[in-house]
Amino acid sequence: MQIFEDFVSEALRASLSRHGTSVGLQSSAYLDRGRELIIKPDILLRSNGIVRAAIDAKYKAEKLGRYPNADVYQMLVYCIKFGLFEGHLVYARGDADIRSYVIDSPGITIYCRSLNLDQPPDALMAEVGRTGGPHC
Fold first, then answer.
1. What pLDDT was estimated at residue 135?
2. Within 10 Å of residue 17's Cβ, how many Cβ atoms?
3. In what order do the strands lie in the sheet with 21-25?
4. Which of 110, 100, 97 shows the shortest CA–CA distance to 41?
């Protein structure tokens, strides 16, 4: 699992750094005012010091063509904490298509995609580079 997360992180760093976007790994933050609940998104993309996207890499397959609800809930928390209108879950290749879930209130979209790990390195790097949405 860690190798997949590290690969996605480093590929994003290589792809986005030339556009002025910094890639932060395992950035900790407190969710609550009492500073008891710690959250740790796998990847935070920042531009001009502002968090633009949260990405979590998941080395597990979706089940029966569906992405796990718990992963979407986790990403929703990250989006709320960092004031984002979209979050991204990246899975190792499975059977599910790219999906997006629009959460009614507060209007956050969670994108779920899987990477095809059975392709040449250049094609895989290009696919990873398209992860993170238009705001990165």
1. 38
2. 11
3. 21-25, 43-47, 50-58, 86-92, 108-115, 99-103
4. 110
Structure tokens at 102: 């629009």
Q: What are phi and psi of 81, to 5 degrees?
A: -60, -45
Q: How far apart are CA 97 and CA 25, in angstroms?
A: 26
Element (H, E) at 69: helix 69-82
- Please name which of 102, 91, 84 lies closest in space to residue 46, comparing C-alpha atoms: 84
Residue among 58, 118, 67, 44 nearest 127 (CA): 118
Q: Which uninterrupted H or E stretch holds 22?
A: strand 21-25
Compute the distance between CA of residue 75 and CA of residue 87 in angstroms, rounded to an integer. Answer: 6
Note down pLDDT in tens along the chain; length 136 residues: 678 777 777 777 777 666 667 777 778 899 999 999 999 998 888 888 888 889 888 877 656 556 678 899 999 999 999 999 999 998 877 665 678 889 987 889 999 888 877 878 788 777 777 665 543 3
